[in-house]
Amino acid sequence: MEETEAVIAAMNADHHLKAAAYHILKALEARGSLTDSMEKYLAELSVQFGSMIKIDDDEAATASREDVYRFRSAQKKILNLQPSRLDICGSGRPEFEDYLQAIEDIKRLRESFGRMDSGGAKKVEELDSQAQNILQIAMEKLQEVLIGVLGQNKHCFEKEYIPFHSCEGTFSYEESVISTEDDSFGGSSRRESSSTEPVEYLMDFVHPDVIPHLKSIAELMFSLNYDHEFSKAFISFWRCEMEEYLTILDVEPNSIEDVHKMEWDYLDSKIKIWCRAAKSIFGFYLVNEKRLFDQILGELGSVSSMCFIEATNAAIFCLLNFAQAVAIGSPGPERLFSLLNMYEVLADHLQIVNTLFAGEAGSFIRTEFNNLLNRLGYTAKCIFLEFGNQVASNSSTVPFPNGGIPPLTKYVMNYIMLVESYSDTLNLLLAEETDNGSSNPTEKDNSSDFADRLSHHLHSLISILEAKLEEKSNLYGDNSLRHIFMMNNIHYMVKKINHSKVRKYFDDEWIREHMVKYKQHARAYERVTWSNVLIPLQDDGTKAKAILKKRCRDFTMSFEEKWKIQRGWCIPDNELRENLRISISQTVIHAYRTFLSRLAACCVCDTYIKYSVEQLESDLLDLFDGSYKSMNHPRRRGSLKSSRRSSILSFV
């Protein structure tokens, strides 16, 4: 027994010395001051400690010679392992397998100690304590091995590689939001397709060859009740990886206050980044990370789900919090389509999130995700329904120059053009019978009732715009310009609707009715403007030269007055402008040609005739180009294309 006590004492001394050397080594590593020679020396010292044990096999009454030998051998392997230099996929694989076997040996020895003769209980307890301490060191090193293996074999993402194409089909991004320029709208709101199902892109986040080793580490640590240590290291590694992935995606954490202080252009750019990032996170990253966690921890019950949630919840809430801040921000109309983009990204990935975070453990993520989805949808619906009131409340009291198309008309029409791209989503949101923000994007119904709802709101918006344009037309002092303004704007509305996908919400009757409206304004303009100009050219049977000369002067003065003013008026649409010029020329040139014939018949001198038919035609072709120039400005009258001249003369 005395010899056995000596053996145990020696083992105790051996253990404490080695433990001390190990912890010194760890402290030096943490400080970064360990040289190669120092590390080698400490490793050799650890081996030498093992040789200090002196065992008299015949006197080892409590611990058998084989047990002590196995203990010493396993102890040496554990203390000698250098995790930072271990390559388990290369030459270090045998060493790693020996290391795992050494831990298994210590584990079995502890089990065998419990079955030994109770007469040596104290000595067995001391041996068991030593084994436990060695296992503690082994587990710490195994944690290092785990982190090292993950770090050496992870898939490294570069910004150029991020698989946005894995979820493409829903959005295309450009530069700006709704614009007052023709066809210059879109930005975070413009889309080329309307896929509603995200595509999952599968990828191995670590090299497949190391997964069995990672699984072995997990199972061994869990079997020794070091599940907390494994989970902590595993979660910490992947949490850092996800933070790095968010950085690659240009996602930064922002408080609600930060978001609300952002100028809209900057916030819109952040929303574009968010949409890309959310699609990549929910449709790619989380799917593959959960797949990896299940491969490694799937046989350990709920551990995989718990670790997955802990590793990802911080990044998920970083995304959700930003979207929440946007949803409760200023309800400006320019935000509608950005909110709808965010809503659709979340709606498209709702089923994925419900699957990834199934069960009680993930319920808080599912709840927050659904609440945010409902909030975004509710806010978007309110903005859309409020837009008509904002158009009606437009309070500009200055007439738009030259009778053209004001920014309000372009803005509203571009707004309507964009609505079609989101028709399914808006139909769903408008179909909600209550205003409690509840919606179920998984139950989409493309029934005619839904389409009628959207069509009703679009017709209402157009009617509000028309009423506002009528109001603005009254700001013009010139009644002729009022008709030009209304003709321009109604024609613009009809053309935009008739040549777009939103046409399905406006029937043929609406198109015909509004074509008649702008043509009526065109005829009213001609009647109001040119009937007075042509009065001097009317044939009342007189042949008195003095009267005819006066009428010639009166016509010239009246024509030049109208020309000087109306040359600066604007008809932006080329076809509409040419048609109105031709219509005016039909009337004016025919009357003027007839008048010139009467002058010639009455022998009125050409001195009183300022314009030839060709010159008058040329001036009429200058109308409505939006520039004010003198009648005396140099003009190359002969430069007009013969096709334009003949197109007018053919009417007379």
From TrEMBL:
<feature type="region of interest" description="Disordered">
    <location>
        <begin position="632"/>
        <end position="652"/>
    </location>
</feature>
<dbReference type="InterPro" id="IPR004140">
    <property type="entry name" value="Exo70"/>
</dbReference>
<dbReference type="GO" id="GO:0000145">
    <property type="term" value="C:exocyst"/>
</dbReference>
<dbReference type="GO" id="GO:0006887">
    <property type="term" value="P:exocytosis"/>
</dbReference>
<comment type="similarity">
    <text>Belongs to the EXO70 family.</text>
</comment>
<protein>
    <recommendedName>
        <fullName>Exocyst subunit Exo70 family protein</fullName>
    </recommendedName>
</protein>
<dbReference type="GO" id="GO:0005546">
    <property type="term" value="F:phosphatidylinositol-4,5-bisphosphate binding"/>
</dbReference>
<dbReference type="InterPro" id="IPR016159">
    <property type="entry name" value="Cullin_repeat-like_dom_sf"/>
</dbReference>
<keyword id="KW-0813">Transport</keyword>
<dbReference type="InterPro" id="IPR046364">
    <property type="entry name" value="Exo70_C"/>
</dbReference>
<dbReference type="GO" id="GO:0015031">
    <property type="term" value="P:protein transport"/>
</dbReference>
<feature type="domain" description="Exocyst complex subunit Exo70 C-terminal">
    <location>
        <begin position="273"/>
        <end position="621"/>
    </location>
</feature>
<comment type="function">
    <text>Component of the exocyst complex.</text>
</comment>
<keyword id="KW-0653">Protein transport</keyword>
<feature type="compositionally biased region" description="Basic residues">
    <location>
        <begin position="632"/>
        <end position="644"/>
    </location>
</feature>
<dbReference type="Pfam" id="PF03081">
    <property type="entry name" value="Exo70_C"/>
</dbReference>
<keyword id="KW-0268">Exocytosis</keyword>
